[in-house]
Amino acid sequence: MNxxxxxxxxxxxxxxxxxxxxMNFMSDxxxxxxxxxxxxxxxxxxxNPVLGVLAGAxxxxxxxxxxxxxxxxxxxxxxxxxxxxQAISIVLGANIGTTITAQLIAFSIGDYAWAFVAVGFIMYFxxxxxxxxxxLGQTVFGFGVLFVGINIMGDTMEPLAGSQVFLELMxxxxxxxxxxxxxxxxxxxxxxxxxxxIAVLQNLASTAGPDGISSIxxxxxxxxxxxxxNIGTTITAVLASIGGSIAAKRTAAAHVIFNLTGTLLFxxxxxxxxxxxxxxxxxxxxxxxxxxxxxxxxxxxxxxNTIWFIPIIPILVKVxxxxxxxxxxxxxxxxxxxxxxxxxxxxxxxxxxxxxxxxRLGRMALGMIVSAQKAFIGNDSVAVREVMAxxxxxxxxxxxxxxxxxAMVANDTNTGEQGTAISGLMHVAAxxxxxxxxxxxxxxxADSKIKKSxxxxxxxxxxxxxxxxxxxxxTGDSIDALENGDPEKAGGVREMETEMNIMEGELRQxxxxxxxxxxxxPEFTVIYTDVIHDIEKIGDYCDNIANVIIENHSVE
Length: 556
What we know:
By secondary structure, this protein is mainly alpha-helical. It has helices at 3-34, 36-47, 52-63, 66-78, 84-97, 99-106, 113-126, 131-157, 164-175, 177-191, 194-205, 218-232, 234-241, 246-266, 270-280, 286-309, 313-323, 347-377, 381-409, 416-451, 458-484, 487-516, 525-555. Helix 4 runs parallel beside helix 13 (234-241) and helix 11 (194-205) runs antiparallel to helix 16. The chain is elongated and about 110 Å long. The mean pLDDT is 84.
C-alpha cells in the first residue's frame, strides 16, 4: 500500500471520527436543551403503548441513534416497566427516527459547516451562565462539526472515481446485492452507528464516476448497502441484551427480525424500489440528487416496514417468544430491579430508573415499619427477625444504588438540573437507609421487651400505635411523591412531620404523668421514650425526602 493510499484511509477515518463526534456532541446538546420535555416523552414510553411508535421516533430524533433508543427500551423491559408489545412498537418508531440524520445530510449544508461551527462555539463557550443558550450552542457546534466531517469524507472519496479496482468492486455490489448487504452490515457493526455508515454511503454515492455525471455506485448499488446498514445497527441491541432478562433478549430479537425481514423483502424488488425513490425525489444529475434519494430510500424503507409490522406485533411477540424460550429467573431482593448501566449516557433515563429503584427501597423500609410495629406491640418474635433480615437487604441495595448514582455523577452529559436531581437522590437514599436503621432499633427494643416479659399499659400501647400509623402514612406518601414527582403530596408529608413532632412531645408528657401516678413502671421509661424517638426520627427522614422532591420540582 503506497503512501497516498494510507493518507486517504487516515483522512477518511478522521472525517468519520469528526462526523461521529459531531453527531454525539449534537445529541448531547439536544438532550440538555430538551430538558424536562424528555421526561414527558419518557412518560409516553412507559405509560401509553399506543404512542410507542411516535415516542420511539421522537426519542431517537433527540438521541440521534436508534441503537441508543433500543438499549434504553431493553433497560425498561428488563426492569418490567414496559411489556414486550409496547417495546416492539417503540423499536419500530426508533427506526423511523434514525432516518432524520440522513435527511439532514442530504441537504447541501456542507458549504455552511464552518459558519455553524463558529456560531455554535460562541454560544457554547461564551454563554455558560445561560444554560439553554449554551446547550443550543453545543447542538449547533456539533451540527457544524458533523458536516465538517462529511466534507472531509467527500473530498477524500473523489480520487476513488479514478481507481479501477474500486470501480470493479462497486460493479460487483450492483450485480450481487447480497454482497452490498454484507458490506453495509459489516461497516455498521464495526462503527456501531448506522447514521455514520449511511453518511459514508451518501458521500460515496455523491462521488461522480468517470463521466462526471453518474454516481460512482448508483442508487441500485447503494440500496443493498443501505439495507445492510439497517441490519448492522441491531448488533448494539443484541450486545445490550446479553446478561439481561428474557424479555430484553426478546426485544433485541424483535429488532433483528424487523430489520432483517425488511431487507429480505425489499432486496427482491431493488430495481422497482429504486424507480419509486427516483420518482418521489428531486430531479437532476444523478450525482447531485443521489444523497437525497438515499435519505428518502432510508425513510421509506423504515416507514413501509413499520406500517406493515404494526398490525402483526402480536404475531412477532409469539415468534420471538419461540426463538428465545424460557421464564424469567427471580432476582434476590438485594439485587437492583431497575438500574441499568447501559443508559448512563441518557441521564433523563438513568434518573428515572434510579428513582424507581429508590421507591422500591423505600417500600422495603415501609415494610420494616409494619414489621417493627407488629414486633413491639404484638410481641412478635417472627416480626423481629423479619426486620433484621430486611435491614441487611436494605443496606446492601442502598450501597448498589449509591454506586449507580455515583456513576451518574461521573457522567459529563448531565445538565445543572440533572446534577441537582442526582444529588437529591443521593440524600433520599441515605434517608431511606436511616429509616431502616431506626426500624432495626425498634426491633431490638421489641426483642428485649419480649425476653424480659415487659408489658405496657393499654394507654401507652395506643399512643405508640398512633405514632406508628402516622410514620407509616408519612413513609408511604413520601415514597409515592418521590416516584410520581408529586410536590403536593410531599407538602402533605411536611405538614405531618410537624404533627409528629407535637405528638412526640405530648406523649413524653403523658408518660411522665403516668409515672407520677404510678400507672407505669420506671424501668419501662427508657424503652418507651426511645421507641417514640425512633418513630419521630423516621418522620424527620420522610420530611427530608419531601424537601428533596419539592426542591427538585422548583428547579424544574
